[in-house]
Design a protein that fits this description.
Layout (H helix, E strand, L loop, with lengths): L1 E5 L5 H10 L1 H6 L8 H13 L3 E8 L2 E10 L16 E8 L9 H14 L5 E4 L6 H9 L3 E7 L8 E8 L2
Parallel strand pairs: 4-5
Antiparallel strand pairs: 1-2, 2-3, 3-4, 5-7, 6-7
Helix pairs in contact: 1-3
């Protein structure tokens, strides 16, 4: 159903379009304002430079509809001390950017397909941590078989925001 292509720096235009038209994507960047094009480009370059990350544009029937990424969870940071992080855990972040595809059940299918293709053979656990106020995303995690762990503060020193932690066993 889904295909996943590698994120490229040129996708900055796609992200810029999604942020303009989809308030959920704007919040995903932890911002309520439209980021400058150069800021988006720098963020995408950071993702591409991350050695342990998988960054994919989600494609459905030939149309680019969203973004999904995963990366190793380091159990030594301030944030992970708030949560019991298992060895060999990946974290997933995702969004459906094209507003014509939100609230139609694609999130669950996209996440499960991504886990099957990129996560389950490499990791023992996978974690997702949406915004506590994003009820749709939280329900999507639960429909994918993730179990609620707890609500924690974001790992940024200047952040007062929270996120919900869900974990799922892969094997």
């Amino acid at each position: 159903m889904f295909s996943f292509r590698d994120l490229k720096l040129e996708d900055c235009s796609l992200f810029h379009k999604w942020i303009k038209t989809n308030c959920f994507v704007k919040k995903w960047w932890y911002s309520n304002k439209q980021p400058r094009f150069l800021t988006l480009k720098n963020k995408i370059q950071e993702k591409l430079d991350r050695k342990n990350g998988i960054n994919k544009i989600v494609v459905l029937n030939g149309k680019e509809i969203g973004f999904i990424q995963s990366y190793d969870v380091d159990g030594n940071g301030r944030w992970t001390r708030q949560v019991k992080v298992y060895e060999n855990t990946a974290s997933i972040d995702f969004f459906i950017g094209d507003i014509d595809y939100i609230h139609k059940g694609y999130g669950k299918l996209m996440i499960n397909d991504f886990i099957d293709k990129f996560i389950k053979d490499k990791y023992d656990y996978v974690m997702i941590s949406p915004n506590p106020e994003n009820i749709v995303s939280r329900k999507t995690c639960e429909k994918c078989g993730f179990e609620f762990v707890k609500i924690v503060g974001l790992p940024y020193d200047n952040s007062k925001n929270k996120e919900v932690v869900y974990i799922k066993k892969c094997k």
